Amino acid sequence: xxxxxxxxxxxxxxxxLGMDESKMVPEQRRQLKLMxxxxxxxxxxxxxxxxxxxxxxxxxEILDGMLKEIGEFIENLMKLQN
Length: 82
Description:
The protein has 82 residues and is mainly α. The protein has helices at residues 6-17, 26-50, 56-81.
């Protein structure tokens, strides 16, 4: 499977988060996959429609900020689970 597909990225995300679909109930699996695909679509639209119109440095700074925001969210979520 090509790494340039949403399906591949979904599987990579599950691995990164230590999640196993086989341990999820079907509705949880469906909702998780729906949200991942929807969020991926939103980010791709942001890249195509908005960030592509900005200067490269500004776009990179915005992406770095968003990656930091995601990292902080996941870190805080993992702390709550422990």
